[in-house]
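Q: How would the structure tokens look for this protein?
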Amino acid sequence: MTIMNRTQPITLLICALGGEGGGVLTEWLVDVARHAGYAAQSTSIPGVAQRTGATTYYVEVFPVPLAELGGRKPVFSLSPVPGALDAIVSSELLETTRQIGNGMSSRERTLVISSSSRTLTTAERMELGDGRADAQRLVDVIKAFSREHHVFDMGTAARESGTIVSAVMLGAVAGSGLFPFPREAYEQVVRGGGDKISKMAEASLRGFAKAFDAVNAPRQQAAMVTGLLATSQDEAPATAALPQAVASLFPPAVHDLLALGHARVLDYQDADYARLYVERLQKVLAAERSADPAAAQGFAITREMARWLALWMAFDDIVRVAELKSRASRARRVRDEVKAGDHDIVKVYDHFKPGAPEFAALLPDSLANRVTAWDRRRATPWALPLKVGSHSVFGMASLRLLASMRWLRRRGQRFAQEQALIERWLDAVARGTQAHWRLGHEIALCGRLIKGYGTTNERGKHNLLHVIDHLAIAPLPDGAPSARADAIAAARTAALADEAGTALDAALVRHGAPPRPVKAVPVRWVRQPRGLATAAQAKSKAH
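A: Here is the predicted structure in token form.
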């Protein structure tokens, strides 16, 4: 596109989330234009998005220098016109597609530069299942509604450079050739006045250079886009090394998830626990091979079980929380997030409030039952609020001491209970698979119901067991395996869509199963404070 021959302003819409420096980016662009002798104008359109608050900035630059206009001045618009934008630059993938959905981008005219990183919306976080928008579909939208597109991870580029994402966005705009300014003009504005460059400006220039190269180099651009399109919704973690002895027991189609699951369980407990994970998966694999000898389904049941079984076996408890919070990688991540230098002091305080059930989980049955019974007799549940400074020697030593108690986990009540529930689910998957492949697959997918901690985790297990007992095992009016599979799929979808369980109960009844029993909730009587009681009596006498 030849910009210098145009007689209309070059239009750019900037989309940034709160705190990402969209206003700074806009000021930089206007300064570059004016220092280069071009007329420019910017406006901001504040808005409230579903995350940290999004503001769009609109920039227009007339492509002819003021010196060549003979005293005339261009007339600029105050707001973008849908379909009439030359470019959109955005720091978040879903925000980019939201603007495209508003009609801002045109496949004949608009250049779209977007980050591949995501900041999940409130609606995505509230979903009980995997509520994330499919990144692949979002990128497809960008491809379909742009004349040219550049998609790369701006967040990673900013973190690696020690700057904010606005500097990376500036480099992407400069590298695209949208405006008739040389690279040096952009860099000069970032440097600011004076001969000495500040550390902040140096970091911004590093981020600028990364983005400039990513957009300006055709080969890097093609490799980045192709790599993004080949990935799933999120950047896949590096596959852990799978021991050869374990890999030989399973088909290659299972190895990727098996490696991650095996590494997670091994890290969670010990080698014996990892062997138990492998043995459990072997039972599922044997059942799937008997139901699908030709492997026409690609061992999908074993793959799903490799995922959900590892997550369930590595359930959260106070030992796990202490271990994760005391890792060196976590301290490095915190320092990176706050952009702390080598000589900066960072203080981190972790807040905990474990209750009686968390402590009872690590005790044998007899002691655990006495602790929970004592807690139920109390007017209010007991909890121990803690504020631990993990930056201090005492705080870190306390966390490491608690993390070292993983050996106690095996002797605790909760460990035994979790293993018994896992075996019930595992047995239902194996039996269902032997009866009908799809039935086993649907039961395996019910592992998605186990998530979170506390009451959320307990509710998920309760729902899973009810589905297994009344849809997978108990006789139904239509006992055909395909009908059972349909019923389980409907119940699982309902359980993930409705936290209260109303939709799940309706789905159960619709397929001939009883609704979940109403759980008894203890009534706790709390003594009214003396001052409030006296005031209430006085008010009653007055009436």
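Residues 318-411 form one domain.

The longest strand covers residues 10-17.

Upvote if useful.
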